Amino acid sequence: MIPSPQNSVAAVELVGANKEPTSEPLVAQSGSGDAPPEYYAVYVPFEEVRSDRPRKGRRRRLWYLVACVLFLLIFLRPIVHIIAYIFVKATTPPWAPYSDPWHLHDPIGDVSECADVVTWTIDANAGRAEWPLHAKTSLAFPINAEELFFLSKGAFAHGTFEVVQFDEVGPDAIIDVDVWYKTDQALAGATVCTLRPSESKYGLGIFTSTWEHPNRENNLHFHVRLRLPSSGSHVPLAINKLSTNLPLFAHHLPELADTAFFRSLDLRSTNAPMIADSLAADAAALQALNGKIEGMFAASTSLDLITENAPIHAQVSLVNKDETKGTVLRMDTKNGEIKANIGLHVPHESEPSGGGFRVGAMTYNAPVDIVFTHAPSNSVLNASAVSSNAQVKVIAHPTFEGTFDLHSSWYTPPTLVRNRTVEDPLGWGRHRDVQLDRFRTNKGAIRGKAVWKPEHPLAKNGHINVETRNARSVLVV
Fold first, then answer.
1. What pLDDT, in 10s, does the model give residues 419-441?
2. Per-residue model confidence (pLDDT) at position 111
3. Which of 199, 264, 291, 379 has a Cα at 20 to 30 A from 215?
4. What is the number of alpha carbons within 13 Å of residue 272 lying toward its C-beta?
5. Cα–Cα distance for residue pair 82/92, rounded to 1 Å
6. Angle, CA 269 vertex, CA 279 and CA 241 arms, to 5°
7. Nearest-CA neighbor of 368 among 402, 406, 332?
């Protein structure tokens, strides 16, 4: 049963009536006997204090990340290069000029594959103070061989390789070998022999020791001369293939373009120049590590001029016989300039097709200067010139039609030069129209197109790319 409120109050009063009265106050009095002060609510403004530790932690992590990135950019690459250098030094003989820097292996392994060792004719008085002793020999290879090749392996052979042509008609090419040396032991330690890897291939091999610490007294200075016969007619002499792998041998080819034609030419050397007064080939490749390449070259299929740490100076004539395949020119080096005058041709200039051509030039830390001196109308040219930290300049022939791209750093903007005095190559009175792509042109890039208007029905579009960094790229159209 729930009690009523009246009964509850009565119960409380009854309890209070039964208690004895007390004299102790409910609240302790102060010493002065004054009543305690009244309590009031006081407003205290609340100020939120945020901890700065998370922000400082994020900032610390950000700086740590920046420091790590800078460390990797500055120190990681040299560390990788040092590790790679140590590995190469540990796995490669210290003195190996005979090694193949182009990773193109010869079919001939070593001296054990010699066919016949040459017989020397000793000259008692060489007439040279530096090289007091001299020996010579000669041999003949059939001129219609599938391949004539020359190679050198070892630490002590160096010299020159030369190709000449004489007026006599004959079935053989004559090889004259001269060697100068200081001691009899030097010549005795070398092996010069003929090589016959197959029935139709003829070669000359020069093999010397590969000691780790070579002695200068064992050095041999060679002069190898390949004498080509005359064709006996107004048609140039045809050589199927001539190849060399002669490290430390300078190569010299005098004026042969009018009297000899190489279907295939592959010349390789290191630390020595290659100079061609003039030569003509279907496909030619000259590769000279740390040696300059210079000369006049004519090619109908492909021409490769490749070196490192040395310049390339060339006058090139490309003759295209098949527009669908195109004729290719490649010029590559590092830390060396490229300077070339290039003429584009077809067998008959009256042909309406014009031919197809592809030209590439690439270097680093050195300028590129290319001038197209001739090109047929309605020809197709795809060209690229690339460098860094140096100017790249290309002067297109007036017959060029197609798109172009120029790239460089924004603080050294590219430059497009319009040749406003150029006349229509066909003599039809057409005008040159050069337009820029406004949407793709900015401080570091210029893109556009150059055509003749009204357009020829056989006109084709090529492309020219000019690219560098930290320097100016220039195109003249």
1. 988 899 988 999 999 999 988 88
2. 78
3. 291
4. 18
5. 15
6. 45
7. 332
Is there a contact between 410 and 467 (Cβ–Cβ < 8 Å)? no
249: exposed, middle or buried (Cβ count in 10 Å: 0-12, 13-18, 19+) = buried
Burial of 397 (0-12, 13-18, 19+ CB in 10 A): buried
Burial class (CB in 10 A: 0-12, 13-18, 19+), 395: middle
Q: Which two tokens stand for residue 408?
A: 């460089």
CA distance 71 to 253: 51
On the question of pLDDT at 10 being above 80, the answer is: no
Which sign does the torsion angle of CA 409, 410, 411, 416 carry?
positive
Angle 136-139-144 (CA atoms, 0-180°, nearest 5)? 150
Residue type, 24: E
Note the Cα 144 to chain centre separation in Å.
36
- What is the tens place of the pLDDT at every residue in 167-214? 999 999 999 999 999 999 999 999 999 999 988 999 999 999 876 656
The phi and psi torsions of 49 (rounded to 5 degrees) equal -110, 115
Bridge partners of 137? 177
3-state secondary structure 185-230: HHHHCCEEEEEEEECCEEEEEEECCCCCCCCHHHCEEEEEEEEEEE
What contacts 292, CB < 8 A, 6 or more positions away? 273, 274, 307, 310, 311, 312, 313, 336
